[in-house]
Amino acid sequence: MRALLLWAANNSWLSTHVPHWGFVRRAARRFMPGESYEAALKAAADFKAQKIGSVLTQLGENIRALSEATEAVEHYEKVLEAAAAAGLEPEISVKPTQLGLDIDPDATFANLNRLAAAAAAVKGFLWIDMEGSAYTDRTLELYNRLHGRHPGVGICLQAYLYRTAADVFRLLSFKPSIRLVKGAYAEPADRAFPAKRDVDANYLALCALMLPDVSRKRVRLVLGTHDMAMIDRVARYADAIAMDRHQLEVHMLYGIQSKQQVRLAAEGYRVRDLISYGDAWYAWYLRRLAERPANMWFVARQMLG
Ligand code: FDA
After folding, report:
1. Rounded to the nearest 10 degrees, what angle do helices 136-149 and 105-121 cross at?
2. pTM surpassing 0.85?
3. Most CB within 10 Å of its CB: which of 100, 106, 124, 277?
């Protein structure tokens, strides 16, 4: 089922037609407060009242013309200003292929550079998503170039890739910001652990590798996961090396483990909710279904009701 859903995410006929089906649109709403950025900002304000921060992301990937990337940059500049004006500590998360990586890496760098400057101007932060493994080298290269100019930029790394331990090791030499996730794309067995238990074991090992540097404030580590058992295990490691709770940071997706987000924030962990919005939700939504195929029942219920 996971493989089928990830195949469907990249199928061009389905991506043109499925977003018009009302029951799929209704089901996708479970993971986003609305398609407009105003809806996302309102959700962010509601989270703030519960001591939960936010990261905003306009859905979109694999654009075909650089003019679309410019539109995305201008949109994010507006969002950063609006979020700052609303008293939110503005953080955004962007996909390199949303900013032109399939077309022109230098133009993508210029776009990221512009967004990093816009984020810095409002004391905000720019996260770079990690897409399929065909983009890993180029995305890390963009991060290496950006980090020297803008400290307020972080990158997502995926625990399912064999290479990630080596990437972490290299990045730790220059005070990086890393959002560690398990990984959401279809990857071949020569690049990524096929078995979930191995991905989980690698996730924990990577955290153990980074935690001493987190405690010395040499890395901003974000656990990008909804896996409460994993968060608990990492928290115990952190306790063992006398780390403060406030130094552990967890980001989750809107609509998933909502009660646990509130609980973790109330217990003193730093929590942010990654809020997605926009109309280009098809491939992203299919990846959410693939993560938990039981979500398909929810889609079926929307179709019947
Ligand atoms: P796991 O899959 O083990 O799930 C643990 C538990 O969480 C499940 O038992 C279930 O209860 C709940 N859960 C997980 N996914 C769910 C879903 N879709 N619906 C309902 N419940 C669900 N990936 C990537 O490749 N590049 C990226 O840039 C990012 N960015 C990113 C940012 C943030 C903040 C998060 C939280 C995640 C990502 N991801 C990502 C996605 C990530 O790679 C991964 O696919 C998902 O987080 C699911 O894995 P978990 O770590 O939650 O664990």
Report:
1. 40
2. yes
3. 100
